[in-house]
Design brief:
Number of strands: 13
Shape: globular
Bound molecules: coenzyme A
Oligomer: single chain
Helix content: 25-40%
Order of helices and strands: EEHHEHEHEHEHEEEEHEHHHEE
């Protein structure tokens, strides 16, 4: 058995913030943001938390899959911006949708999170442990961005994407994941802390910090490498892949990856112009958009690939 996606859903908060809007907050311009990243606007959560947007995406996926919440036996949420240290975002989703038969926990792998969570669900299904799962990628990075730092604040957005999966004969073919913890400082964000024993009790807010050029170099090397690895290991010809659904961090990263893989850019769906980098949600949102547009046909081979803080990276090969 393997994990087969039987329904997808996504949700982005209502508020749209354009590049022009940001130019009124920091020293930047629509032209700079567009040419460096491909982003035109992003949706930001003003009155919803991570679990609330995750629930919206989940309900849409469940509706498409026509799966009753009580059938779910496992809920995984990939997020690096949960509202609480505990309970987990996955437990909050489980409670909100009433999936009382499901175990629920979060997976923290930043922008690789959805690929890591899908791979984990697949491993559970291959070993016969769970039969009906819900995999969500949800992030509200606007809450950990320093809105005075033009080097990061223009790149990110908020959103959630979800997939309902069932243990079936056809679905995930294989995956490849990696991590390099020695390079964690390239892209990091401190958590809230109340200080050490008997010292400061004032909550400290951690902001995201990023070395953009190092992340760029890492992504254009690692993403093609792990895609080639998962294809080779599973004896699939790259020409037979219909779409490469990559984490939406930057159009230039997608272009560079396509070039390195020797594949036309048309095989790389792109929606970053509307959403910015939604971290763990981006691949799931993209998958839902392409699914709802009717672009995916049973039998299509797809590669989902993510990369991000950790550093982490991963590629998942599946048959639709
Ligand atoms: N508006 C205008 N100018 C900006 C700016 C902004 N929002 N942000 C940075 N700049 C300036 C810099 O200060 C620098 O100015 P200087 O030359 O006077 O010092 C100049 O633009 C060039 O900066 P640089 O960092 O060299 O730009 P870049 O071409 O590397 O593009 C990124 C920057 C962040 C867009 C690019 O490195 C990138 O996309 N990296 C990957 C980031 C990513 O994907 N992160 C998430 C991974 S999950």
């Amino acid at each position: 058995m393997t994990a087969r996606i039987v329904g997808t859903g996504s949700y982005v908060p209502e508020k749209i913030v354009t590049n022009e809007d940001l130019a009124g907050i920091v020293d930047t311009s629509d032209e700079w943001i567009r040419t460096r990243s491909g982003i035109r606007s992003r949706h930001l959560a003003t009155d919803m938390g991570t679990s609330e947007i995750a629930v919206q995406a989940a309900l849409r996926a469940l509706e498409m899959a026509d799966v009753d919440v009580l059938e779910l036996d496992c809920i995984l949420v990939a997020t690096s911006t949960p509202e609480k240290h505990f309970p987990s975002c996955a437990c909050e989703v489980q409670g909100a949708i009433g999936a009382k038969n499901a175990v629920a926990f979060d997976i923290s792998a930043a922008c690789s999170g959805f690929v890591f969570a899908m791979s984990t669900m697949d491993a559970f299904m291959k070993s016969g442990i769970y039969q009906t799962g819900l995999v969500i990628g949800a992030d509200v990075l606007s809450k950990v961005i320093d809105w005075k730092d033009r080097g990061t604040c223009v790149l990110f957005g908020d959103g959630a994407g979800a997939a309902v999966v069932r243990a079936e004969e056809i679905g995930v073919i294989g995956f490849s994941m990696g991590a390099d913890g020695s390079r964690g400082d390239v892209l990091s964000c401190l958590s809230r802390s109340t200080g050490n024993f008997l010292t400061s009790t004032e909550p400290q807010m951690g902001y995201m910090s990023m070395n953009g050029q190092e992340v760029f170099k890492f992504a254009v090397k690692k993403v093609p490498e792990c895609i080639c690895q998962v294809l080779q290991e599973n004896h699939i010809n790259i020409e037979d892949v219909k779409y490469f659904m990559l984490h939406q961090a930057n159009v230039r990263i997608l272009e560079a990856a396509a070039k390195r893989l020797g594949q036309p850019l048309e095989k790389f769906p792109i929606d970053i112009e509307k959403y910015g980098n939604t971290s763990g949600a981006s691949i799931a949102i993209l998958l839902d958009e392409w699914n709802r547009k009717g672009m995916l046909t049973r039998g299509d081979k797809l590669v989902l690939a993510g990369f991000g803080a950790g550093l982490t990276w991963g590629a998942l090969l599946l048959e639709w």
